[in-house]
Each structure stands twice: as structure tokens, then as C-alpha cells.
Amino acid sequence: MAGPSGSRRIHGSIAHDLGVAIVTGQYQPGDVLSGEIEFSEQLQVSRTAYREAVRILAAKGLVESRPKTGTRVTERRRWNLLDPDVLAWTFEAEPSQDFIRDLFELRMIVEPAAAELAARRRDGQDLARMGHALEEMARHGLGNEAGRDADRLFHQSILEATRNEPLMSLSSSIEAAVGWTTVFKQRKRKLPRDPVPDHRRLFDAIANADPDGARQAMTELVRLALEDTELSLDA
User: Fold this and answer.
1) Cβ contacts of residue 105 below 8 Å, gap of 6+?
2) 32 — phi, psi (to 5°)?
3) With 80 as the cut, is the pLDDT of residue 89 above it?
4) How far is CA 59 from CA 26, 52, 78, 147, in A?
5) Using one digit for the tens of pLDDT, what is the confidence trace for 130-165?
6) 3-state secondary structure (DSSP) of residue 66
7) Which of 39, 77, 91, 126 could form an S-S bond across to 34 if both were Cys, CB 3.0 to 4.6 Å?
8) What is the pLDDT of residue 25?
9) What contacts 230, CB < 8 A, 6 or more positions away?
10) What residue ranges define each of the domains in the chain, with the CATH number in brackets?
């Protein structure tokens, strides 16, 4: 019998597989998933593990369970598309071009305003975190996981420097969007240019307490990131 950690891995794995199947269209909205008895017997897992996996998916808005009708895939408009897991599952296949462009629209709405606030409110610790992340990006590049981790940390640090709790709550979603779109645009070709100088200009504006400059630098950074991604979409 699996212990607590083993059980968590099992239901997490089930949630992952079902989540990918849902967001990539293998299960359509309105489809009813297998019952827990059938599913657990088919995969030789406990009914408890399956129920826990369904709870995870329900919390992300992907399914709903009702007595007598079973567990049904919900309409896409109810999905928490900004949940980091849902974003990861979406990018395990080929996300639609519309969805990718929607993510960049979101970033263009949120991040320039966040950069402006960060330039007004950042402190020495914020700048130290951003500076360290920038150094790691330059050292590793965005072609490997270490560099992408640094990129996510850079954007997270900007949101934290806003001191705005609702904005800060978007941190994990923005990080995930930055990370997965960066991976996506390298799936068929190398990055067409080095984005580190764009990040450095943004850092300089925030460090110099220049709100207008920070907003403009972030706007340009996101615009160029979309431009790079468009090249990948057309490849």
C-alpha cells in the first residue's frame, strides 16, 4: 500500500493525465468521465486516489461532479486558464494561436502597469533580486531551464515590488505564462535574438525610479516577445 507521499504522487499523476486530456480536447465539454470504480479498476489505483484527482480538477474549474450524473467536463469559460498547472497542461500539446496571443494581451495589460508601480515603490531588496535574476539570465541564456527560471524570477520580483496584493497574487500565473511562451517560441528554432538587453533596460528604469520609462520598457519587452513568438507560430 502506498504511503501518504506515494498517494499524493498517484492522484497528482491522475490529475495531470486527465487535465492534459481535457485541455487538449481529448475530452470535450459535456463529456462524462469514467466512474471511480471503472477508472480505478482500469488503472489499478485506489478509488481514493481517483477522487482526489477529480477534486484537483474541480478546483481548477475543469470538471464538476454531481450525484447520479457523475463527473462531467465543464465549459471552457469556467476553466481557470491562469492556473499554472492548467497553463502547463495546455502547452504540453500545441496550444491555439488565439490562446497564445490572448496570454500576451494579458501581459500587455498587466505588466507595463506593474513596472510603473515597481519603479515608484521598489526597495533595495527588490532591486537586488531583479539584479541577481538578470545576471543569471545573462549567464545561462533562455535556451535552458536555469535561464528561464531566472527570467520568471525577474518578472515575479517586479510584481512583488508593486506592493499591490491583487497584482502580487497574479505572480505565479504571469511567471507560468512567461515561462511557457518562452519554451514555445524555441520549439522549432533558436531564439531569434537575445532578450537580455530588453530586460536590462527595464531594470535600469526601475532602479532609476523612472515610472514612465519602466512602463515603456516593459511595453517594448512584451511587444518584442510577442514578435518572437509570432515567428514561431509562422514557422
Assistant:
1) none
2) -100, 130
3) yes
4) 20, 11, 11, 31
5) 999 999 999 998 888 999 999 999 999 999 999 999
6) strand
7) 39
8) 93
9) none
10) 4-78 (1.10.10.10), 94-234 (1.20.120.530)
